[in-house]
Predict the 3D structure of the following.
Amino acid sequence: MTETATPRLVRSRPEPAALGGAGLFTVLLAAALPLVDFFIVNVALPTIGRDLGAGESLLELVVAGYGVAYAVLLVLGGRLGDLFGRRRFFLGGMAAFGVTSLACGLAPDAWSLVAARIAQGAASAAMLPQVLATIQAATSGPRRARAMSLYGATAGLSMVAGQVLGGLLVAADLWGTGWRLVFLVNVPVVVLGLAFATRTVPETRSRRPEPVDGPGTVLLAVALLALLVPLTEGRAAGWPLWTWLSLAVFPVATGAFFAVERRADRAGRTPLVPPSLFTLVTLRRGLVMILPFSIGFSGFMFVVAVALQQGAGLGPVAAGLALAPLAVAFFFTSLAGPRLVARHGTRVITAGALLQGLGLALIALAAWRSWPDLGVLGLLPGGAVAGAGQALQLPVLYRIVLSEVPTARAGVGSGVMTTTQQASLALGVATLGTLFLTLTPHTGMRDALLTTLLVQFAGVVLTGLLSLRLPRTIG
């Protein structure tokens, strides 16, 4: 009698479910919320100041508190999603975003609003890294390329639409809510998003969960805080001693962070930001390009909002609608982006930088000729051209940065990218905003605006030149 051996079944971890169309819509909706909220308050700040009796430094904290908390915690949020499950952190972050938005909308005074905005930034940092990590882990091939293009288009459009929407909501003053509606509007959107997410977003996590790097997390937080807080608050506070001491801490903390990360990597531990990630050429060069692009973008949006309301005398609606051509051009151009990239590769970014530079020149010309009678029609040509140029850059940059990141490190990769972007957005408001507000009393608002646009133009030129170093094709 012959005994037949039955092979032992080996259990393997199931592959993550694919991200379908409804799930992609849901995560893109979540990706839009934090970026909209970074910009939505720009046109609402004058109204907030009058209603809450807040001075300039407190109003800057309303913007900066959110941006700094968001930037500091993004990499940690990505790592925790890899460790405990991205869907879990996505749902928790989205729920927290809704609660903190409600707290912002109900804030009885300026300091309560600042505290709620800081908490809102922390909630965004838990939610947003899971979006990109889920796309990386639950899609592949052409579906991933399309999803990444849609993510980039959503991100860029959200940053412009936030300012337009803010003006409309403040002016609508529904039920006497005034500026509060710019935060309260998030609550029903979050409820809808949670209902969709529980049914459509698959659970993914790293196959080899990596523990949190405590020393690296603390040092990264110290470095970002040491840089962003004095730059955002220094001008309004009169540049006291603590701002200079804080800036002096930044290079020390940054050097210590990289030293600790290298030591952890060599010892076989898992650093917060693995140095091996920066051996990826596409990630390294893409991050370098995101810096000038995002600094210029956020600085431009902040400065234009202030100039149109305080200098050109436009109301919140008109100031928001003046940027509508930029949003419309961004949207339609981004739809053609994937086909253009398939045909021309990364040279699409170079063309986008040229278009954006031309758009800025047209905006500067309109301001020089028409100030202070500058409105929607005057900004239309330059805004439309600049928006088209931005749409050819940002979505492609996202694809480039994450194109070679392993699926197992999708969370930390997306966290590093979004941290770079968010820190750059905060830097843009701090640096270009400070330049504009410092020059205005001495040169007048028109010349301050033109000088700021010239500085941004230099950043666009830098982005265009750096794009020539990219690989011609994207994997």
Q: What stands out?
A: The chain has 18 helices and no strands. The mean pLDDT is 84. Residues 213-271 form one domain. The radius of gyration is 22 Å.
